[in-house]
């Protein structure tokens, strides 16, 4: 597996093989220059003492330079391999230390590499289009509803397309789903209507066949389709002869004229069909018919700010010419931001969090190296006494650290590959560009850089400290070798403070996410999701173009489902686009069947539900939600009141309110309640229907029977998106759940590492102070006093770390605002409780080793060497 990933990146390995000798060459050049200066200074001394003639001095100088130049390459190679061999031997001599350090490094580097792989695939990789950095989405900025990404009408789109000075091309499109029939089972496929200019904007063309043209956007000439590579393989078996064949879509035959290349999808990864946007005369002149999205390709050198200003001018002209469109502006969003903008903050926060965990691991390893330096103090002192330079010792110690970090990085890459598969499997299915995530050359380079950086990070301070021992103390016969440990206590204390501060930041971040998720789960949805099954049907074909046929289909299906064993109740809701506002507000309209509110568990607050008396020839009736009732009829009973959609002088019928139901959040936990209206299906049938079935127990076994009932009425109507309501709600919060889970894992790891770091520092310090403790206790100090002294000194580090971490958390948690719901980034409860947890863990981590040492017999402590 590793070999397969490394094979395409041999250039990287070759670069490293040249880099490492160059590092040694640079270090050896500095040593050689220092030696040369040393010889020159001695020559100057000889010259002042008149010990040699000028000719002898010149010969000696030339000889010294030639000797150094001849020895440099040879010494370079010898020292490099000598350092590597010696470093490997020292690591093998301490297998326990090496194993602990390797595990910590491998987990930290592996986790960092796995998260970076997702960041690389989702955020850093370019979109698979010709000029992705120049492609922008063009939205209508709807100030009336506070929606900055709303749709356009066709006339408005034409004005933007024809009057702008900043785009090479503009295109309009709209998402659509299609029923594919003609095979054994009908299939529901995601697709889109689009203008022919879409392919020029994206800079992509079919790999087989052609794209449709502007002439094919005329009604009657639009019966062509471009299909995706996946649909071509699935539906036509990858047959090149598919070009020219008919594909039955929504009961209408369309000719396949092109197949897109693999991996090219737009506007989402689920899109598999592209058909011409054929706009009829009514929509071409309807300024209030908002049904189109727009996209544009900026001219070279034009910035997004310039484009906003140019289209803003056009929007102002439209508003002046058509006063009914006041409150509508324009908003431009780069396509890459449009696709990944919502997930970017979460990924960056997780990458920073795993980086903090890696830093804490480095601090722990640095502490281990400092403690290990005490056992090598005599060795280092002897080498210095024999003439070894400090730079040479630092290079040797850093070589050991780098060797250790590279070994940890190699194991970490394997962990990253396994961890990446796990992260992809648990990521929400709607995560953008998840198919682009892999371990590529950029990821391997990241792992290498992280490995080298961590090696330098945790190895530099111990190397600098160890290379300057107290020679008098270290070379004493019978010396305890504690000088280095005592002098390094300040460094170890700073490392512990850093660990605690970083841990506190992660723990507070995790605490905020946990509390935010709890708040989200406590949101009142307005309906009961238990034992509820949902599935979608979209009617297509000429036989359902009239309302009565659609209403009859729904009635037959619902009656058949209601008769199934295990079904308690059944209902249906049909979604329709938002109706334009009369004056101030847009109100979504949904058509529902009798029994829908009962099936969903939505409370009826006033009036009645729809029943069999609300037929097509009966007076038009409507049910509204509580928010609309409170807004337009405050303090009154709205039942019996009438209103109409659109202008008061329009042709739409007057609707009589027969009931008021409670507010519900069907489309998300985080969206606020808004005005909603419901019409009976019999009076207002639409094209798509969501069937909801409440079972007596687990509703999923009913899915097959419900699907059969639909096919029994019409075999050509596919049933899709069959799932339980619990699953739908879980998917709505899946991204937040994953963020909370990963943040919790990182915070727990940080807490564990911080506890281990405190324990190690206190334990090592107690070992070094065993003799001192014995003296104190021999002079009359009680164990409790000594224990309190030790714990107080250790907890002082924890308090300083908590103070630093609290200040850092107040700053950094503000970057998490978009990841929180119903919780302030400076939530007092979280900032008050999390430090208490860390204090408790820190106290336990320093109490245990201190208690063990204070229980030692004072006489043994006095004899401790």
Give the termini distance in whole angstroms. 51 Å
Count helical runs.
27
Residue share in β-strands = 15-25%
Give the fraction of residues assigned to helices: 40-55%
Mean of residue pLDDT?
Answer: 80
Largest sheet: 10 strands, mixed
Uncertain stretches of 5 or more adjacent residues: 1-6, 23-29, 45-55, 61-72, 477-486, 576-584
Number of strands: 22
Tell me the overall shape.
elongated
Q: Into how many domains do the coordinates divide?
A: 4
Radius of gyration: 37 Å
How would you classify the helix and strand content by structural class? alpha+beta
Give a structural overview:
The chain is α+β, with helices and mostly antiparallel strands. It contains 27 helices and 22 strands. A hairpin with a 2-residue loop joins strand 8 and strand 9. The protein is elongated. The two termini are about 50 Å apart. The model is unreliable at about 1-5, about 25-30, about 45-55, about 60-70, about 475-485 and about 575-585 (pLDDT under 50).
Task: Identify the notable features of this structure and list them briefly.
865 residues, 4 domains, 10-stranded mixed beta sheet, 6-stranded mixed barrel, 27 helices, 22 strands
Summarize the structure.
With about 850 residues, this protein is α+β, with helices and mostly antiparallel strands.
């Amino acid at each position: 597996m590793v070999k397969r990933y490394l094979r395409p990146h041999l250039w990287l390995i070759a670069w490293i093989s040249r880099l490492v000798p160059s590092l040694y060459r640079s270090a050896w050049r500095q040593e050689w220059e220092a030696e040369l200066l040393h010889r020159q200074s001695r020559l100057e001394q000889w010259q002042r003492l008149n010990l040699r003639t000028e000719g002898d001095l010149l010969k000696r100088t030339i000889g010294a330079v030639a000797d150094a130049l001849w020895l440099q390459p040879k010494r370079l190679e010898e020292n490099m391999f000598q350092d590597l061999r010696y470093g490997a031997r020292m690591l093998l001599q301490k297998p326990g230390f090496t194993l602990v350090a390797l595990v910590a490094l491998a987990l930290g580097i592996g986790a960092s590499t796995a998260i970076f792989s997702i960041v690389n695939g989702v955020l850093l990789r370019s979109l698979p289009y010709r000029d992705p950095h120049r492609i922008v989405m063009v939205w209508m900025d709807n100030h009336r509803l506070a929606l900055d990404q709303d749709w356009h009408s066709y006339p408005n789109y034409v004005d933007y397309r024809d009057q702008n000075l900043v785009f090479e091309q503009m295109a309009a499109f709209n998402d659509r789903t299609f029923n594919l029939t003609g095979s054994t089972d009908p299939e529901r496929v995601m697709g889109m209507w689009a203008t022919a200019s879409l392919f020029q904007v994206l800079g992509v063309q079919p790999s087989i066949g052609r794209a449709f043209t502007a002439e094919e956007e005329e009604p009657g000439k639009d019966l062509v389709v471009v299909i995706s590579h996946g649909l071509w393989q699935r539906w036509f078996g990858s047959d090149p002869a598919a070009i020219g064949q008919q594909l039955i879509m929504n009961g209408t035959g369309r000719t396949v004229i092109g197949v897109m290349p693999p991996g090219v999808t737009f506007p989402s990864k689920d899109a598999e069909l592209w058909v011409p946007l054929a706009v009829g005369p009514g929509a071409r002149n309807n300024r209030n018919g908002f049904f189109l999205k727009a996209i544009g390709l900026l001219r070279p050198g034009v910035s997004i700010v310039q484009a906003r200003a140019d289209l803003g001018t056009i929007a102002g002209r439209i508003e002046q010419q058509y006063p009914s469109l006041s409150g509508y502006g324009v908003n431009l969003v780069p396509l890459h931001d449009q696709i990944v903008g919502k997930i970017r903050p979460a990924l960056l926060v997780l990458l920073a969090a795993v980086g903090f965990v890696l830093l804490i691991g480095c601090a722990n390893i640095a502490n281990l190296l400092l403690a290990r330096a005490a056992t090598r103090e005599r060795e280092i002192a002897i080498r210095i006494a024999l003439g070894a330079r400090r730079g040479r010792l630092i290079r040797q110690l850093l070589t050991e650290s780098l060797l250790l970090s590279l070994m940890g990085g190699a194991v970490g890459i394997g962990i990253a590959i396994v961890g990446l598969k796990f992260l992809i499997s648990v990521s929400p299915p709607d995560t953008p560009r998840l198919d682009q995530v892999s371990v590529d050359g950029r990821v391997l380079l990241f792992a290498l850089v992280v490995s080298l950086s961590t090696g330098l990070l945790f190895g530099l301070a111990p190397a600098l400290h160890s290379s300057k021992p107290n020679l008098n103390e270290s070379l004493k016969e019978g010396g305890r070798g504690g000088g280095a440990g005592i002098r390094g206590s300040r460094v170890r204390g700073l490392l512990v403070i850093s660990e605690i501060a970083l841990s506190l930041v992660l723990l507070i971040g995790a605490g905020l996410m946990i509390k935010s998720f709890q708040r989200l789960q406590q949101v009142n949805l307005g309906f009961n999701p238990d034992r509820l099954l949902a599935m979608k049907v979209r009617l297509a074909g000429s036989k359902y173009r009239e309302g009565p046929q659609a209403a009859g289909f729904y009635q037959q299906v619902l009656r058949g489902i209601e008769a199934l064993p295990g079904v308690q109740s059944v209902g249906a809701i049909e979604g329709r686009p938002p109706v334009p506002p009369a004056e101030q507000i847009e109100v979504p309209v949904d058509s529902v069947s009798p029994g829908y509110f009962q099936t969903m568990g939505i409370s009826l607050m006033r009036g009645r539900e729809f029943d069999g008396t609300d037929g097509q020839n009966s007076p038009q009736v409507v049910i509204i939600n509580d928010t609309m009732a409170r807004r337009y009829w405050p303090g009154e009973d709205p039942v019996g009141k009438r209103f109409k959609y659109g202008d008061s002088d329009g042709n739409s019928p007057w609707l009589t309110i027969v009931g008021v139901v409670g507010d519900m959040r069907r489309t998300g936990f985080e969206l606020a309640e808004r005005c909603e209206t419901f019409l009976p299906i019999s009076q207002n049938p639409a094209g798509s229907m969501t069937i909801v079935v409440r079972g007596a127990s687990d509703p999923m076994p009913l899915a097959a029977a419900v699907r059969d009932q639909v096919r029994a009425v019409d075999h050509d109507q596919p049933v899709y998106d069959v799932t339980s309501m619990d699953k739908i709600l879980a998917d709505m919060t899946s991204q937040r759940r994953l963020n909370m889970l990963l943040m919790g894992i990182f915070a727990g790891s940080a807490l564990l590492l911080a506890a281990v770091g405190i324990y190690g520092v206190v334990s090592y310090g107690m070992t070094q102070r065993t003799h001192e403790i014995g003296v104190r206790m021999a002079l009359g100090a009680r164990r409790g006093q000594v224990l309190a002294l030790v714990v107080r000194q250790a907890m002082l580090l924890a308090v300083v770390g908590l103070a630093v971490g609290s200040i850092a958390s107040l700053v950094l948690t503000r970057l998490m605002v978009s990841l929180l719901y119903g919780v302030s980034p400076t939530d007092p409860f979280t900032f008050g409780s999390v430090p208490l947890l860390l204090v408790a863990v820190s106290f336990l981590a320093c109490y245990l080793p201190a208690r063990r040492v204070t229980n030692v017999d004072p006489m043994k402590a006095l004899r401790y060497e």
